[in-house]
Structures are given as structure tokens and as C-alpha cells.
Amino acid sequence: MKPARFLLAVLLLGSIAFPGSLAAAQSPSPDEDEIWKAFVAWLNAQPDVNQIGFDRYRAKLIADGLTPAQADARLEALGKLTERHRDEIGAIYYNKLYATADQTRFTLQPNAFLVEMTKDLKPGAALDAGIGQGRNAVYLASKGWDVTGFDVAEGGLRIAEQNAARAGARIKTVKARFEDFDYGVERWDLIYFVYVDAPIVDPAFVAKVSAGLKKGGLLLIDRPFHPLDKPEPEWPAPTEQDAMNALPKAWSNLQLVRYEDTFGIGDWQQTREDREKKQLRLVRLLARKW
Ligand SMILES: C[S@@+](CC[C@H](N)C(=O)[O-])C[C@H]1O[C@@H](n2cnc3c(N)ncnc32)[C@H](O)[C@@H]1O
Question: How far is CA 43 from CA 40, 202, 204, in A?
Fold first, then answer.
């Protein structure tokens, strides 16, 4: 896997797995804080999103004088640290991605499920959770919705605002995490999670987001069922009985309007390499609060 793709898979869709040989590599016990800071400084210094990835960092460590075994041990430590600092590294990655001229990784069109599910609705207050560069928020705002979007990637927020201005629309943006955003009480006509890795089957999260919906308000989710070939910890493996309809079960406090569990090419699977790889299992849900 190309370096940047590897990092993307880690950030977007999975966790880091190291070959057994790396786990066995020996090195002096490293200072985690220093290791992390050096890696973040290197990430920030890379001009292009395609330049960031663990194998490039490994080459840099070796060029700096580490032996291959020491570099592998350093990467193994970084793998664990990346899990711990997921939001920080995610923000660096997405800020770089949205700032690059190469926007071929994801579709710039608004999400098709969102477009279809909202086309006959009276515009109201919408919340875009993980707004990215604003492709969905800008679409809804141009249809008259009052859209607020939040994201950890601040650079994405600025680009989303610019994209909205370019479309003659206005959106509000907030820097926040899924877990910390104040969803309020009966505040939103529509809350959507499109291609984001939010804790959408966690009961406490479901309760918090549901409280934020107005009566009659809609929740919309569209995303891969699980990260590529690796199930996320909070998602049961697709072969397990529990995985059947996990999403509607998690949101059974709402009225199920539409649910799809299907295969297709994801919105964030748009490079030729990705499209040729395989179809993803995708889940889409629309539910209403009563
Ligand atoms: C794959 S992109 C999807 C962006 C947008 N929803 C779309 O469909 O184009 C995932 C987005 O989630 C954001 N993100 C990652 N972790 C987050 C967190 N904990 N809280 C809020 N946003 C987060 C990223 O910065 C990124 O913009």
C-alpha cells in the first residue's frame, strides 16, 4: 500500500497492524513524548499529503542514522501512539488533504443519499458532523438550509467556508470533535454523519445526538460498514449475528425511515487504485425523531 494510502486507512477506516517481525525488533526504550513530537513535526513539514506515510518516515529515520531494526521499533511505538492521538494526526492529515490541489481521493459532489433524502424537504437547521471541505454543507446551504458544520480539521473548516462563499451560500463552522460537540436539545431538523468515523453505535452518543434533534427531525448516516477489511472495535464483524442491522438497532429510539446495507464504491474511494480494489460494504440510514 502506498504510504499516504496506508496512513489514510489508519485514519479513516482502521487501525495499524504491524507484521510480527516488527514486533520482535529490539531497540532502547524510547521516550514516547519525544517520539511523537518528532513525528508530528515531520508530518507538519511535509508539503504534500502524498508525502506522509510510515514507510517514508522509516526512510527518514534510517537516513538520520537509525538502524533498520531501530526504525522498525520506532514505527511500532508510533503505531500505538497514533491510536492514542488519532484526532491530532487526523487533523494534520485532513488539513493537508483539503489544502492540496489533488482532490481526487473523494468525490467533490454532494453525497447522493443526502441529496435524495432531502430533495423534497422544507429547509431547516442542519448539522454536518465532520464537515470536511464542505461538499455536503455547501449543497444544503445552497438549497436554503441553515447549515452548521464541525470538524477537528481547522483547515477544512476554512476551505468549507470558502467553498460556500464561492457557491454564494453561507455556512457556520465550529472546531470540535464528535464526542465533545454540544448537540443541544431539540435544535436540529437534520443531523448527518457522512463518511465519518464517529461513535455512531455507542448508546451514550446515540442519546446525545438524538436529544439534539427537533421532534420530526431527521438523522442521516452514510458510511462504510466497517473499515476496509478490519472491523472497528465497536463494530461487530459482519459475519456475526449481532452485526445484522447494527445501525438501525443502535438508533431504535428513532423511527426508521430508510435503511440500506449494500455494496458499492464509497464516496471516499475515488482514486482509480481504490475503485479497482473492491466494492465496500456500505450502510445508509435515515431515521426520524418523534
Ligand atoms: C472522510 S472525511 C469526510 C468529510 C465529509 N463528511 C465528507 O463526506 O466529505 C472525515 C472527516 O472527519 C473529520 N474527523 C475525524 N475525526 C474527527 C473527530 N473526532 N471529530 C470531528 N471530526 C473528525 C476529519 O477531519 C475529516 O474531515
Answer: 5, 31, 34
9-61 tens-digit pLDDT? 444 433 333 232 333 334 445 688 999 999 999 999 988 887 788 889 999 99
Does the beta carbon of 134 lie inside 6 Å of ligand 1? no
pTM above 0.90, yes or no: no
The whole-angstrom separation of Cα 21 and Cα 37 is 25
Domains of the chain and CATH, by start: 3-99 (no CATH), 112-288 (3.40.50.150)
Instruction: Judge if the beta carbon of residue 90 lies within 6 A of ligand 1.
Output: yes
Separation of alpha carbons 110 and 137, rounded Å: 8
